[in-house]
Design goal:
Layout lengths: L10 E3 L8 E4 L1 E5 L5 E7 L10 E12 L2 E7 L2 E9 L2 E5 L4 E4 L4 E5 L4 E6 L3 E11 L10 E5 L4 E4 L2 E10 L2 E2 L8 E15 L5 E11 L6 E5 L5 E15 L6 E4 L2 E3 L2 H12 L33
Antiparallel strand pairs: 1-21, 2-19, 3-4, 4-5, 5-12, 6-11, 7-10, 7-12, 8-9, 8-11, 10-13, 14-15, 15-16, 15-17, 17-20, 18-19, 18-20, 21-22
């Protein structure tokens, strides 16, 4: 899944320091037309645009729906697709055709440019779609795709964590990451303390069940300096985190860049059918890019 808003706001991200914990309430965003599936977008938020290199968090379901996201472009980021229920078929301009199911990871690196589509039959869908901004030295890397059908697990008293990306408690995901970060699904069964890197800022999102420390539909931000996160209850949560991102970026529609002119160039290439390749096998037309705003896009800090 990606950003299908027809009037996307400029998303301003980059390096600035926050001071304490925050609760980032999600906003409902429809994906597509009149029968669109609704997602809850907690990042970027009006007050905080990034957590480490994580710059986009959409949570959806459980709901019965048929996903249909036409071919569309990406630059300067990685898409992280994670399901709790359902199945989604990924196609991209590298020729990849890969279904994803619960507990499996689809990781797409856009780098200098890639196009993809996602679709599913009508079924119960429940999952998250995440983006990771690529640091400057890697943002023009060649596009790539990885499918990881099995991922390592960190177990402790009262919890079991599937390490989706990066490193958690000494357990490392095999997925390619371009900056120090973590992404994990944690099953909470009672009272637990999950080890985290004190150099990272973190976000915690309730996926299902009840966990006392978390509000449904909200992403709880934790600043650097903590070595553990305490959780109590029974449910599943998403943990994301990373070293505070030290670059300012411009994020608009499905592009991550560094300047207004760069975004204009990405949009032009997509609309003219250049630079991103073709997604073969999708029954439908590519998604047209929205109209750019009337004022220049500017790189900004990761918090407002």
């Amino acid at each position: 899944m990606s950003n299908l808003e027809r009037d996307p706001r400029e998303i301003r991200c980059g390096a600035e320091e926050g001071t304490g914990s925050e609760v980032l309430t999600g906003r409902e965003v429809p994906l597509g037309g009149p029968r669109a599936m609704l997602v809850s977008r907690t990042l970027p938020h009006v007050h905080r645009r990034m957590i480490g290199a994580w710059c986009f968090v959409d949570a959806y379901g459980p709901q019965r729906a048929a996903m249909r996201v036409p071919p569309h472009p990406h630059t300067g980021l990685q898409t992280v697709s994670w399901l709790i229920a359902g199945e989604v078929l990924h196609r991209d301009s590298l020729g990849t055709l890969q279904e994803i199911r619960p507990g499996q990871l689809n990781l797409m690196t856009a780098g200098r440019g890639i196009a993809h589509s996602e679709e599913s039959p009508e079924t119960v869908l429940h999952g998250v779609q995440l983006w990771v901004a690529l640091p400057g030295e890697h943002r023009h890397t060649g596009p790539g795709f990885e499918h990881h059908p099995a991922l390592p697990v960190l177990s402790g008293t009262g919890f079991e964590a599937i390490v989706i990306m990066g490193l958690l408690g000494g357990v490392a995901s095999p997925a390619t990451a371009y900056s120090p970060l973590v992404g994990a699904q944690i099953a909470v069964g009672g009272v637990c303390e999950v080890p985290i890197d004190p150099a990272f800022e973190h976000g915690v999102l309730l996926l299902d069940g009840e966990v006392a420390e978390l509000e449904p539909g909200a992403l709880t931000y934790l600043p650097p300096g903590r070595s553990r996160v305490r959780l109590s209850g029974h449910g599943r949560v998403l943990l994301i985190g990373g070293e505070p991102f030290e670059e300012e970026i411009v994020m608009w529609w499905n592009f991550v860049g560094r300047s207004h002119d760069e975004i204009v160039a990405f949009r032009k290439e997509w609309m003219e059918g250049e630079g991103f390749g073709a997604v073969e096998g999708y029954d439908g037309e590519p998604l047209p890019a929205p109209v750019l705003p009337g004022t220049p896009l500017k790189p900004r800090g990761r918090v407002r």
